[in-house]
C-alpha cells in the first residue's frame, strides 16, 4: 500500500475491469429513461385545485345571498344548491386522477379524469345559462372555471398522446 491509500482510507482496487472497458474507466451506464410527465399539466392541476377552493366558497356565498334576497320558486333552490355539493364530489376525484396519471405516466387515470370532466362541464353551463337566477358573479366564476377546465383537458389530451406514443415506439 502506498501512503495516499492509507491516508485517504480508500481500498486498493483489485480485480479486472469490466469487459470492454479499460482500467480506470467507469462501466457504461444504461441509457436514462425520458421523463414524460407534463409540468404544465401539473401546474394547471395544482392551481386549478386552489381555484376550486375559491370557487366553492364563493359559489356557496352567492347561493346564500340568492336564497336570502331573491324569491326562489319551489324546489329550485334546493336542487341548484345540491348541484354545488355534487360538483365537489366529482371535481376532487377528477383532479386527483389527473395528477396521479400525470405523475405515474399512465394514460388511464387521465382519460378517466377527462370523462369526469363532462358532467362538470354540464354543471358549469347550467350555472351560467340555465339556473333560476344568474348573477354576473355566477358568469364570472363559472367562466373562469370553464377556462381552467378547458386548459386542463387540452393538457390532458396532449399528455395522453405523449404517453401513448412513448410506449408505442420504445
Automatic annotation (TrEMBL):
Keyword rRNA-binding found: no
Main location: membrane
Transmembrane segments: 39-65, 77-97, 109-129, 141-165
Subcellular locations according to the entry: Membrane
Xref: InterPro entries: Uncharacterised_TM-17
GO biological process: non-motile cilium assembly
Gene Ontology CC, one term: ciliary transition zone
Composition bias type Polar residues, residue spans: 1-16
Annotated region described as Disordered, given as residue ranges: 1-31
Topological relation to the membrane, as annotated: Multi-pass membrane protein
Keyword list, A-Z: Membrane, Transmembrane, Transmembrane helix
Signal peptide from the UniProt entry: none
PANTHER family with a match to the protein in the record: GEO07735P1-RELATED, GEO07735P1-RELATED-RELATED
Entry protein name: Transmembrane protein
Amino acid at each position: 500500500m502506498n501512503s495516499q491509500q492509507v491516508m485517504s482510507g480508500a481500498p486498493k482496487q483489485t480485480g479486472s475491469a469490466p469487459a470492454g472497458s479499460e482500467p480506470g474507466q467507469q462501466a457504461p451506464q444504461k441509457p436514462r429513461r425520458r421523463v414524460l410527465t407534463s409540468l404544465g399539466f401539473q401546474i394547471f392541476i395544482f392551481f386549478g385545485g386552489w381555484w376550486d377552493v375559491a370557487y366553492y366558497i364563493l359559489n356557496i356565498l352567492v347561493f346564500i345571498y340568492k336564497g336570502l334576497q331573491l324569491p326562489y320558486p319551489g324546489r329550485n333552490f334546493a336542487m341548484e344548491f345540491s348541484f354545488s355539493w355534487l360538483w365537489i364530489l366529482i371535481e376532487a376525484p377528477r383532479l386527483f386522477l389527473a395528477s396521479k396519471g400525470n405523475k405515474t405516466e399512465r394514460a388511464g387515470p387521465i382519460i378517466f379524469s377527462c370523462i369526469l370532466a363532462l358532467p362538470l362541464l354540464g354543471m358549469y353551463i347550467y350555472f351560467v345559462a340555465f339556473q333560476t337566477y344568474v348573477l354576473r358573479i355566477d358568469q364570472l366564476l363559472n367562466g373562469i372555471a370553464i377556462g381552467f377546465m378547458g386548459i386542463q383537458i387540452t393538457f390532458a389530451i396532449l399528455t395522453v398522446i405523449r404517453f401513448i406514443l412513448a410506449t408505442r415506439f420504445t
